[in-house]
Amino acid sequence: MNIQRWISRRQGQWQELDTLLQRAQQRGMKSLSAKEIATLASLYRSVAADLARANTNQIGETIVQELQALTTRGYSQIYRGSRRQELRGAIDFYLWGLPQVLRDTWGYTAIAFAIFLLGGLVAWWFAWQDASFMSLIVPQSLIEKVRDRGQLWMGSILGTEPVAASGIAINNLSVCFRMVGGGILAGIWTIYALFYNGLLIGAIATLVGQNGLAYPFWAFVFPHGSLELPAIFIAGGAGLLIARGLLFPGRYRRRDALRIYGLQAAQLVMGLVPMLLIAGAIEGFISPQEFIPSPVKYIVGTGLFILLMLYTLRRDPLRAST
Questions:
Q1: How large is the angle between the packed helices 34-56 and 3-27, nearest 10 degrees?
Q2: In a structure prediction context, what are the per-residue pLDDT tens digits for the chain, which is 322 residues long?
Q3: CA contacts within 13 A on the Cβ side of 276
């Protein structure tokens, strides 16, 4: 290998890459045309290969260092731009894409809510008709605390807020992920989980109502429940979407239907995760605090729910104008 001839032949591309990188570093990648960006990527690959050859053939430390610096700069510009695009894409999704998906799939979320509500009404009806029904759904220790001592159980969170908040968030995420995954079982597990959670909430609500503790109980629930309960319904809707693709593909092939509805379900999961993390933090640090007046908790919960509804109604101005 004639080193001088090789350097002479390759030096033009090294200089061309250096020129493009200087422009990109000074003015940003947007200052380059599409053709120049493609050229930059091609030159970067060629120079990376030259660096490997220079190392293999031990072509002088100076050349190796220059090529190393050039490839490092190229890598930084190309992949930093890619990461910026990914970040921009994530921001755009949460600003505009997620609200659109929530609107497109609201029917499935509504069905999930109806199943949950049915469970709550069934629990309320049977709990009033038969006192023994309560013990089938609610732990006996909790029943005794409410009925015999006239106390709620939320005070146990106080003093352990960080641990409680993380535990609550993890538990809620686990419940919701199982609901979503239950769609692959023809939606049977999703429906069961929604109905059972409705039974549980309905039974507990009846228990505290029968013992004159409804107002402080719902004051505890409102702040975090304004996000946690909608997240459960969204998770149920995502599971039903997967079941729809599996059972009723319609005009699509079943494989294509699963891909289409599964993508919507995945997007809904991306939305409910931050909702549950925020709800867990609120349930750990705000909901059980006795120094916060109950009316304030009701206002906080109502305000968060209104903000959630307003967020759902957000529309991409670019899409709306077309």
A1: 140
A2: 677 788 788 888 888 888 888 888 787 777 778 788 888 888 888 888 888 888 877 777 778 888 888 888 887 777 765 556 666 778 888 988 899 999 999 999 999 999 999 999 999 999 998 888 999 999 998 999 999 889 988 877 877 788 888 899 999 999 999 999 999 999 999 999 999 999 999 999 999 999 999 999 999 999 999 999 999 999 999 999 999 999 999 888 898 999 999 999 999 999 999 999 999 999 999 999 989 999 999 999 999 999 999 999 988 765 554 4
A3: 23
